[in-house]
Design brief:
heterodimer; A: seven-stranded mixed beta sheet; four-stranded antiparallel beta sheet; B: mainly beta; six-stranded mixed beta sheet; 55% strand; globular
Chain lengths: 114, 112
């Protein structure tokens, strides 16, 4: 298994509270990604990072921010959580981001916003 | 139209059956296609990836790409109950960038 951990694995929070999810990798891979997975929508890219302090938006970035101060950590922040952000969040990593580069996924964080 | 379309199923087959999972895509610029398998409450894991048209085989699994019809398929021979999972197809974003676009996934159940 790729060395990817996510924390917390489960979280219940209330609308309007800030939430930070953490992805940690031990593979020293350059690229890191945050996805959300919802019934009827599949996996959708939120944000990704192509290096320390280098990030870019994905398909569904509104309401989310990210930070990457170290190669091994990629944080996803919901500044003010809403019920529409209830989802399962997956982190993924890849080595060089080029053609055919494989993305490896973490175990996921199940977030419920009440 | 979503860039990658996948029938969500669910699909239920008896053990030993040949399974065919299919996706279509709408942009011809794609070069790489992937199949991921996701067990319940787990992260997706890469099963196969393929480039260009033709078949790629790995044990009981065969990935097929038909670029003329923009069709990608995954075949599972001699299906087993352990193959019960959701299967996700994905394509490499055009221009060779790092982003993947996923289909919605097909849930497969193989009954003993």
């Amino acid at each position: 298994d790729a060395g990817i951990t996510q924390s917390p694995r489960h979280k219940v929070t209330e609308t309007g509270t800030p939430v930070t999810l953490r992805c940690h990798q031990t593979e020293n891979h350059r690229y890191m990604y945050w996805y959300r997975q919802d019934p009827g929508h599949g996996l959708r890219l939120i944000h990704y990072s192509y290096g320390v302090k280098d990030t870019d938006k994905g398909e569904v970035s509104d309401g989310y921010s990210v930070s990457r101060s170290k190669t091994e950590d990629f944080l996803l922040t919901l500044e003010s959580a809403t019920s529409s952000q209830t989802s399962v969040y997956f982190c993924a990593i890849s080595g060089y981001g080029g053609d055919s580069d494989t993305q490896y996924f973490g175990p996921g964080t199940r977030l419920t916003v009440l | 139209q979503k860039e990658v379309e996948q029938d969500p199923g669910p699909l239920s087959v008896p053990e030993g059956a040949i399974v065919s999972l299919n996706c279509t895509y709408s942009n011809s610029a794609f070069q790489y296609f992937m199949w991921y398998r996701q067990y319940s409450r787990k992260g997706p894991e890469l099963l196969m990836y393929t480039y260009s048209s033709g078949n790629k085989e790995d044990g009981r699994f065969t990935a097929q790409v038909d670029k003329s019809s923009k069709y990608i398929s995954l075949f599972i021979r001699d299906s087993q109950p352990s193959d019960s999972a959701t299967y996700l197809c994905a394509k490499q974003d055009q221009g060779g960038s790092e982003k993947l676009v996923f289909g919605k996934g097909t849930k497969l159940t193989v009954n003993p």
